[in-house]
Amino acid sequence: MDRIRIVGGEKLNGTIPISGAKNATLPLMIASLLTEDKLVLENVPRLADVIQLQRILGNHGVDVMIAGKRAGADANAGRTIELSAATIADTTAPYELVSTMRASFWVIAPLVARMGIAKVSMPGGCAIGTRPVDLLIMALEKLGAEIEIEGGYVIARAPNGLRGGEIKFPKVTVSGTHTALMAAVLARGTTVIDNAAQEPEVGDVADCLNKMGAKVSGIGTSRLVVEGVARLNGARHTVLPDRIETGTYAMAVAMTGGDVLLQNARPELLQAALDVIAQSGATVTTTNEGIRITRNGAGIKPVDVTTAPFPGFPTDLQAQLMALMTRAEGTSHITETIFENRFMHVQELARLGARIQLDGMRATIEGVKKLKGAPVMATDLRASVSLVIAALAAEGETIVNRVYHLDRGFEKLEEKLGRCGARIERISG
Ligand SMILES: CC(=O)N[C@H]1[C@@H](OP(=O)(O)OP(=O)(O)OC[C@H]2O[C@@H](n3ccc(=O)[nH]c3=O)[C@H](O)[C@@H]2O)O[C@H](CO)[C@@H](O)[C@@H]1O
Ligand SMILES: C=C(OP(=O)(O)O)C(=O)O
């Protein structure tokens, strides 16, 4: 199993190119199931999750080509992928494939919308809470699907097709909104999705669906209106930049000090996080090329932050911010409101010398003068990268175990940080 070795203490200086967003790429790939024509996606990050989803879609009969080559021939070949679901070979998504990644459950919506039936294993994904799918099921039922749960599978049936309906989510859910959207685009009549997630990745998927001939309005707001159409066509779409990768590297620079341009990053995708980074004492500047983060000399200031759905501070940056606050000059508070068990990084950060107390969903972080390297274990995607951030500022060597978590969502992490002066390497095997 690969590990990452970091020797802390170096400032970061240089340029980090920001990849396409994982959390947009996955539902965009799944949207290919909605049409017989070719969907071409550009700026696709080469990540373990993307490769796993290629396998899952392949199982349904989707032909996936990467920059002109067949999927699997050269996983690192290109950032343009072509997905062609001319025929759907299989409407079942088996446990072995779905259990590793939560987003793969979302195939349920396009499959039932196009084929009238889908049988999908209950999902896996990051261990950050119970992560139920009741609201996804509710959305499908509102559009006329009949749902049965059997042997760990959700079976959705709509032999006569889905019909438009009113969906009001009792809480903001990204997965629920993706599911509702992908089901509604091929339903007969109008669907209204209230309290829809406004996360930029949802907007990106809705934009792509419209390029495919869907009629979605209200994009970027909490009320989406979808006029169903009989069929969708192919399209070409460029995945938006990854705001979580952007925020992660911004916090890494705020942690180590230095001066880094986050190339292709778009500030409007993470304004709440950039505001917090600025409050912490780093300078955030928007340039034509992206976002520049600098911290030279000034100490890290404590902050008080609560995670919230977009446009609030994202839960996917909570662990990284906590790592940054371990070195703040004073006491910080971070409250997690989205996932009930997203504090797995706390005990690992403690191995490096962090002082963090948990009281339910609220963490109190007392900044320390020094962190010291240690062996640590990655527990989930964002928790793992928080350990990298802490290690970059820790004295001596840190070994991060279970790096496969990082590989799910951070493309070329060692290379991107290494080019900016970090002492970081992957130890294979
Ligand atoms: C692949 C992907 O895009 N993952 C992101 C997505 O996850 P994901 O789409 O799974 O997160 P949701 O927005 O759906 O979940 C938000 C909250 O709603 C709850 N809930 C959700 C569905 C449901 O049927 N019932 C229910 O109670 C969840 O347990 C959670 O407490 O959005 C999260 C919140 O921004 C991010 O942290 C994840 O990185
Ligand atoms: C939690 C995440 O992913 P997933 O929803 O796939 O578990 C994430 O991207 O931070």
From TrEMBL:
Key words of the record: Cell cycle, Cell division, Cell shape, Cell wall biogenesis/degradation, Cytoplasm, Peptidoglycan synthesis, Pyruvate, Transferase
Subcellular location: Cytoplasm
Gene Ontology MF term list: UDP-N-acetylglucosamine 1-carboxyvinyltransferase activity
GO cellular component terms, semicolon-separated: cytoplasm
InterPro entries (alphabetical): Enolpyruvate_Tfrase_dom (IPR001986), Enolpyruvate_Tfrase_sf (IPR036968), MurA_subfamily (IPR050068), RNA3'P_cycl/enolpyr_Trfase_a/b (IPR013792), UDP_GlcNAc_COvinyl_MurA (IPR005750)
Active site annotation, chain numbering: C126 (proton donor)
Entry-linked Pfam families: EPSP_synthase
Residues holding UDP-N-acetyl-alpha-D-glucosamine: R102, R131, P132, V133, D134, L135, D316, I338
Protein name: UDP-N-acetylglucosamine 1-carboxyvinyltransferase
The species this protein was found in: Undibacter mobilis
